[in-house]
């Protein structure tokens, strides 16, 4: 018996929605899931439907809805202590964090998804798809080796449930690996992987095991080989049609058409196509359009422009490496904090004390933390920090971009705080910093680091034409019996641009 068969309600509807998603038709799956959610009274059915709906929103690129959807999913899954649901939720959450350009949170979800799925006792179809979705998340976040390991796990679990290995071919994992090699200068390695994908397509055509959602991936692999000057027997243009309604399919079709235009000897036309329709940086990585521009320029004989485009692609790759390096440092800090938390289990609250958008502690967690300080008779510097220009961001670029700015600022604050300091999202664009034992000198130093870190962020790319800054004010808690409310009021009254 499969995992879905344990549900009390709507099993057939949920199975049908799942098959639609597997075939790349998430827009058709959404109304089915919404109907289930409107009718069901069973907590497990509700949690499963919310998880699958979250995945559909990710597939459709509806980024502005992800924070609300994630909050609903997290609440529902907490009520149903099931490792499969938790693993599937975190796999989708990693993809959602990737769409929101939040690498550190994405990595956290990857680890949580892997641990939860490894704890699932059943080896059924749903669990196999959970491993498949985790493999996709690993791949999109750039962890290609881990993605291959997870997809092998999907095949192994799927085989136990009677599914053919071809069901979990996952050519997108190897395609992203191939273009990543090319972005790093290893074009020969890229071509080797693309040839393997082409050979796999021929095998699957012979056995009639091709999933519709994979069409655009195979088409792009063929077109990318052609753009690099290596013709193929299969017709890439045919494979770039159909394949579902996901953002991935749309972008692969457009970039595939660009590649075929290069192969046809029309590099100027290909450049125009690249500039006409922007594509998501999440599908094949931010360097891919720059690399295609380089190939266009080289094909046109403009080697200086080709070199400049390649340098830009390399710079984007280096930025990703820097993010991973920062994430490694943050991971070490988190491990140290976890050890400290084990020694003092009352210091931090549970997941209900987290802000779902930024991942920071929320107002309630802040109050608990400061209450603990005051109970122990400790003093601390308290800072109130808000975003200058945030209202303009929401008006000019929309709430989705506002959310991205909040997440970016949250990352800046968490990165520059001293070990043992506390940062929370208080309300709206307002953050509160608590520095135990710190005086005015330490508070000023932290404020300087925050200002410097925020100043080097590339706000022009995120919210073009809208300058972003921070305003902060400081006070003390515990001094002269001052409580949190009084300290926050005094800090807010002294706010000034950092």
UniProtKB/TrEMBL annotation:
Cited CDD domains: GGDEF (cd01949)
Gene3D superfamilies from the UniProt entry: 3.30.70.270, Tetratricopeptide repeat domain
InterPro entries reported for this sequence: Diguanylate_Cyclase, GGDEF_dom, Nucleotide_cyclase, Rev_trsase/Diguanyl_cyclase, TPR-like_helical_dom_sf
Pfam family membership, one: GGDEF
Domain GGDEF stretches: 378-498
Domain of life: Bacteria
PANTHER family: DIGUANYLATE CYCLASE DGCM-RELATED, REGULATORY COMPONENTS OF SENSORY TRANSDUCTION SYSTEM
Protein name: GGDEF domain-containing protein
């Amino acid at each position: 018996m499969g995992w879905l068969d344990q549900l009390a309600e709507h099993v057939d509807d949920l199975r049908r929605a799942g098959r639609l998603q597997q075939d790349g038709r998430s827009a058709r799956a959404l109304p089915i899931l919404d109907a289930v959610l409107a009718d069901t009274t069973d907590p497990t059915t509700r949690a499963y439907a919310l998880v699958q709906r979250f995945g559909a929103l990710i597939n459709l690129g509806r980024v502005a809805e992800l924070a609300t959807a994630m909050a609903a999913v997290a609440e529902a899954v907490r009520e149903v202590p099931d490792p499969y649901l938790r693993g599937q939720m975190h796999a989708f959450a990693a993809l959602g964090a990737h769409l929101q350009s939040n690498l550190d949170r994405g990595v956290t979800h990857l680890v949580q998804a892997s641990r939860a799925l490894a704890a699932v006792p059943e080896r059924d179809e749903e669990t196999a798809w959970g491993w498949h979705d985790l493999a996709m998340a690993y791949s999109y976040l750039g962890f290609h080796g881990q993605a291959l390991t997870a997809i092998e796990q999907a095949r192994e679990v799927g085989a136990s449930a009677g599914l053919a290995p071809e069901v979990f071919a996952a050519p997108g994992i190897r395609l992203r690996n191939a273009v990543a090699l090319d972005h790093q200068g290893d074009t020969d390695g890229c071509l080797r992987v693309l040839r393997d994908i082409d050979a796999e397509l021929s095998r699957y055509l012979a056995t009639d095991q091709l999933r519709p959602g994979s069409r655009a991936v195979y088409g792009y692999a063929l077109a990318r080989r052609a753009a690099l000057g290596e013709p193929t027997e299969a017709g890439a243009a045919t494979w770039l049609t159909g394949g579902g309604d996901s953002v991935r399919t749309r972008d692969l079709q457009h970039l595939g058409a660009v590649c075929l235009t290069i192969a046809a000897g029309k590099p100027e036309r290909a450049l125009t196509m690249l500039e006409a329709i922007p594509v998501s940086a999440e599908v094949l990585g931010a360097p891919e359009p720059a690399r295609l521009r380089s190939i266009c320029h080289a094909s046109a004989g403009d080697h200086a422009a080709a070199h400049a485009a390649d340098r830009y692609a390399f710079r984007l790759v280096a930025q990703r490496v820097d993010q991973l390096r920062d994430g490694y440092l943050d991971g070490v800090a988190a491990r140290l904090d976890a050890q400290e938390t084990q020694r003092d289990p009352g210091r931090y609250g549970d997941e209900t004390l987290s802000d779902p958008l930024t991942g920071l502690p929320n107002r309630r967690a802040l109050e608990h933390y400061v209450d603990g300080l005051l109970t122990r008779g400790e003093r601390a510097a308290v800072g109130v920090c808000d975003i200058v220009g945030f209202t303009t961001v929401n008006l000019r670029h929309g709430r989705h971009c506002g959310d991205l700015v909040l997440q970016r600022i949250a990352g800046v604050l968490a990165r520059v705080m001293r070990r043992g300091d506390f940062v929370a999202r208080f309300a709206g664009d307002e953050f509160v910093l608590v520095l135990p034992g710190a005086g005015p000198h330490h508070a000023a130093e932290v404020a300087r680091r925050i200002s410097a870190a925020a100043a080097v962020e590339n706000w022009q790319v995120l919210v073009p034409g809208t300058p972003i800054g921070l305003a902060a004010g400081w006070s003390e808690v515990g001094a002269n019996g001052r409580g949190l409310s009084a300290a926050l009021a005094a800090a807010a009254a002294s706010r000034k641009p950092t």
